[in-house]
């Protein structure tokens, strides 16, 4: 026994190396491929998630009697499940209550607790979301629970506890709001440059755009994330600038006449922005995703309005051409 204890780290490593799939204790759950290394694809997933992803956790406390739930000091509303014949309190987790409810789950054995995880990502371009789904399947062998188009964007969702645990335990994400506080995770920031570049690629693909001047512009309201993206671009040999606009949005941009091949490395091959950058630099390049009606008609319309009106803000233009604010912002950047 003493000999085994002395070699426990050795045997622990053998066990970890032999694990190929992970599965939660549920009959309906499917095994998830165990990802053991921080790869470029995983870094791209995290970069995309920083920009257009969200993590939601619904925590449920249940009991056979309603009186027991009244003893819990929570703002949750007690509900009754007719099928299970029990009472429950559903609570949406966020960074303010996450640790408290995790402790509650461990310490209070008189109640049953469950957590339902949902990871969601949205983007206006189908090819971007398809690339995100492919990265996840290639690594974890997980398919989305739903993948569809709403009025203005494509949406993919994953209800998977193990994938969510990767986001929480390895990359420090918590459920709830993150827009202006999100940053490059330390595990990525302290990795080799190719991992950091893959992270930037994921972020730029989803919240960056290609301009008519053949440059990249990336926007975020997180100052820390903007700083990281600028640092990565500069370390890659690109000249980059940044500014804070009137909407408190940080923009990071490359200068004209940079290597197109290097700029293309920040977009997944075959996605719309990758094709747009190719199309702007190669008159013979044929794209099935880029058309005048969908991609340039509004830009020219806005250009004409600006020439006519001389001065106009995004809200005025939005009303004139009947589109959302994000669309106007992107056309402004292109112009």
Brief description of this entry?
With 335 residues, the chain is α+β, with helices and mostly antiparallel strands. 45% of the residues lie in helices and 19% in strands.
Major sheet size, sense and barrel closure? 6 strands, antiparallel
End-to-end separation in angstroms reads 72 Å
Strand order of the largest sheet: 4-5-3-6-8-7
Secondary-structure element order, N to C:
HHEEHEHEEHEHEEHHHEEHEEHHHHHH
Structural class: alpha+beta
Estimate what percentage of residues fall within beta strands. 15-25%
Total number of strands? 12
How many helices? 16
Principal-axis shape equals globular
> Percentage of helical residues?
40-55%
Overall mean confidence score, pLDDT: 86
Q: Radius of gyration from the CA trace?
A: 24 Å
Give the low-pLDDT segments.
none
Describe the fold and architecture.
The protein is globular, with a radius of gyration of 24 Å. It has helices spanning 2-6, 8-18, 40-52, 66-70, 98-107, 126-140, 161-169, 186-189, 193-207, 223-235, 260-264, 272-281, 292-295, 297-309, 314-321, 325-334; strands spanning 21-22, 32-33, 53-63, 79-81, 86-92, 112-123, 146-149, 154-158, 208-210, 216-220, 240-244, 250-254. The model has no long low-confidence stretch (mean pLDDT 86). The strands form 3 sheets. The protein has a 6-stranded antiparallel sheet. A 4-stranded antiparallel sheet has the order 9-10-12-11, sandwiched between helices. A two-stranded antiparallel ribbon has the order 1-2. The protein is of the alpha+beta class and 335 residues long. It has 16 helices and 12 strands. α15 (314-321) crosses α16.
